Amino acid sequence: MSSPALPPLRDVINRHGLFASKALGQNFLFDEQLLSRIAAIPGSLKDRAVLEVGPGPGGLTRALLRAGARVTAVEMDRRCLPALAELAEAFPGQLRVIEGDALAIDPATLFDEPYAIIANLPYNVGTALFTGWLSGEAWPPRWSSLTLMFQQEVAERIIAAPASDAYGRLAVLAGWRSHAKIAMKVHRSAFTPPPKVMSAMVHVTPAEMPAHVSARMLERVTEAAFGQRRKMLRQSLKGLPGALAALEELGIDPARRAETLDIGEFVGIARMLSPL
Ligand code: SAM
Q1: Rounded to a whole number, what is the largest CA-CA distance in the chain?
Q2: For 131-162, what is each residue's pLDDT tens digit?
Q3: What are the pocket residues of ligand 1 if the criterion is a CB atom closer than 6 Å to any ligand atom?
Q4: I need a surface site. Which of 46, 48, 73, 235 has the fewest CB within 10 A?
């Protein structure tokens, strides 16, 4: 597919005065090869609907459009809108830009078909959106995949295995009804300005949801268990009605600590406490 010729991203930024705002967590990516590798993580995007959160000056957006995606981009920095409008003009009918705070938008209201979510976001916003998209009782979700940039340390927590220091609520949330992997590590020097830490792209696809388990209950169990992760389960779960009896029934030693339980064991406890 032939793509329209576009000016270098740095020129776009200079022309529109898009100096990176620290308050908005802006660290831009300019390396077009890296951006196309990121856009390739979810597989072929040809004719697929994509939600991009935080397009900024549009580096990743270009790569998505060149891959043939139909992109809806949500950006809260209005300074970026003219640059994004130019991009929409260069790829007629392929880019819709919405000015707004992604934290206040339910993406399901923007699409009437499955959509892939892709974003290079500030750390705090990314984690809040990620937990929101993975929570809720309805499953499978309307999104077909999440491909998100995180600080590497957070990415390690998302894919962490039991008994590791990084294992906690995020790993259970990401693992109990979806597959999460680190698809690519991204060096800090790839960003302008470079952040203090390394980053990684995490890719998540939905899996089958275990039967008779309330997502909210699983959340309550992991919240209690990891809220006091150094304590034995008999202590950390004692405030959760029925939890100690569930441990006994499941043959889980109440002297164990949260980080030793695998995801299946957390799901088992939540199932015993979930209304039928
Ligand atoms: N995607 C561009 C890139 O890769 O070069 C920009 C990445 S920059 C790390 C994050 C972008 O997310 C910025 O453009 C920022 O304005 C935007 N952003 C931050 N918080 C947001 C929010 N709550 N909703 C929508 N966009 C947000």
Answers
A1: 66
A2: 999 999 999 999 999 999 999 999 999 999 99
A3: 24-29, 53-56, 59-60, 74-77, 80, 101-103, 120-122, 125
A4: 46
Domain ranges of the chain: 9-206, 215-273
Residue nearest to atom 18 of ligand 1 (CA): 54
pLDDT above 90 for 207: yes
Its pTM surpasses 0.90: yes
Residues paired with residue 205 on neighbouring β-strands, in sequence order: 179
pLDDT digits (tens, 9 = 90+) for 36-56: 999 999 999 999 999 999 999
- CATH entry 1.10.8.100 includes domain 215-273: yes
Q: What is the CATH number of domain 9-206?
A: 3.40.50.150
> What is the rounded distance in angstroms from the CA atom of residue 220 to the CA atom of residue 239?
11
Angle between helices 243-250 and 263-273 (to 10 degrees): 120
